[in-house]
Automatic annotation (TrEMBL), chain B:
Name this protein carries in UniProt: Allophanate hydrolase subunit 1
Keywords: ATP-binding, Hydrolase, Nucleotide-binding
Species in which this protein is naturally found: Shewanella hanedai
Record-annotated Carboxyltransferase domain positions: 6-233
Origin: domain of life: Bacteria
GO molecular function terms listed in the Swiss-Prot or TrEMBL record: ATP binding; hydrolase activity
Signal peptide segment: none
Amino acid sequence: MMIEVIKGGLETSIQDYPGRIGFWNQGFPQSGPMDSWSFRLANLLVGNAAGAAGLECQLIGPSLKFTDDRVIAVTGANMSPSVNGVAVAMWQSIQVKSGDVLTLPFASSGARSYIAISGGIDSKPWLGSQSTFTKAGVGGVTGHAIKDGEVLPLADKVEVISRRVKPECMPELSKNKTWEIEVVAGPNDDWIDQAGQQRFLDSEWVLSAKSDRTGFRLDGPDWTFTDKAHNKAPEHGSEPSNIIDHGYPLGAINLAGQTPIILVSDGPSMGGFINPYTVISAAFWKLAQSRPGDRYQFKQVSVEEAQDLRRVLDKKCQMSSLTLIK
Amino acid sequence: MIYPEAKFSPGGDRYILVEFGNEMNLELNFLGQGLGAVIKQSAIKGVIETAPAFASILVHYDPDLIGYHDLVRELSTLINGLGSIEDIELPSRLFYLPCCYLDPWTRECVEDYQEKIHDKQSDPELVAELNGLSGVDELVRVHSGTEYWVASLGFWPGLPFMMPLDPRCRLTAPKYNPPRTWTPKGAVGMGGASTAIYPVSTPGGYQIFGRTPVPIWDTQASFPEFEQNICLFKPGDRVKFVPISEQEFIDTEKRVADKSYVYNVVDYQKFSVSQYKNWLNSIDTDKRF
């Protein structure tokens, strides 16, 4: 009852949903899948609870050998999955047999694929979650991305009826490398002047290659600030973006000097830079599926609109999004 | 200043930032920690967790269970019910933490940044100059001359955000622009008026000028201090840096590696806010010593 890792891929890690929650005040990030939409649907396709531990693959996927018969599913970015060299469909239940090898070569569109296995991965939870936080070496089986030759233990498999995801319930990846990302203004939007706020919303921001599961760095125009950012007590620090260290919301657009960094799943919980905007939870899948060089256009929504979008997304991550394969 | 009323701001669809003021003082930190404690006791529906900081607290909530405005109302009620901080007296452990100031490792890291990213003034010299000190030796004397109050943990697992309890040792520093991509494990540094210790090698924005050989977080519970918790510190602890030489750093590192190191921590004292305030009133806070 295990998977043999033939090739680990670029950075394939064990994640569960929602992740390691409740330790923000000690500096532990939530972790978990960056595109929880694709992740949850993958689990439902194999009969698991939506949050069961599966694999997140980034740009270059793994090659995995199964040692018993299992139902699996692959969702998210298209990495052209194949079993024993024969192409298999994404977004549906797939039966694999003992000895079969699943391979995900590389992403032709999107950035992150998800693999769910009936029963789920059976690693020991750490602070209540199996999610891997590689930067601190905790979670998963080893605390790190899976490596060639490693073995991933599986839990008992569950009965599965083969299903596929209805096309209208799948995330639609950008075809022109441009993404509209919804943000809520705040908590520190009043540190940015009117012109700076307008510039943020009107400009295209390019995702830097210096991005990972802790932060997405953006390239774009310079920021301008209000008086509050310039004239303040020295304990904030002297740069306009400096503030007395405070808690960071997940998804915050953290302004480090002039460099905006979106704080994502493995990001810091606290620090001394302002957060003028926050990416809403329902837009995280778009961050997950974008690649360095892709462009972001930010769209401001209200807190209530952001919470509505979250509910709409959660509804799509339910069994009603699946249909039986006839 | 301390705001007459707490300021609430949204952080996306599932966070609220509550700010109590825009300066660094113990009172604001007690408000943040105090609200965190009463939120926990009152078990407001929909609150998932909180992260108190120097002058604020971040509240993480489930918008399916409570809306933004309802939560603001609930939090306002709790804030109004917080008692006076004058009466607070709480147990506070004191950690004597070895620190090799002006060490070669943080210097190497700063030089790497100067070479590859941005040619800035070296961190210890910059902090000394900005604070009107005679040089880096005085920086070491002033920085190690006070107990530090652990106001919160964050940024990275176990990283303590600390403020000096003795105002005569108060220093300020700008934060890096842009941030460093790496920092040596155990580096000690400052940003704004805050002092922090980097638990592992991470990116960072503080000016760094010292290094401790002693682990401040440990998932393996190699030392008794980590049996209850993987993080060494908790809010309300105090830290006193003990300057050590480069050779002592290396020797201590060896004792940490073979697990013979013994943490120097005392746990019999209480911190009394009123006594602390009385003491503050008795000293000339503008002086250095």
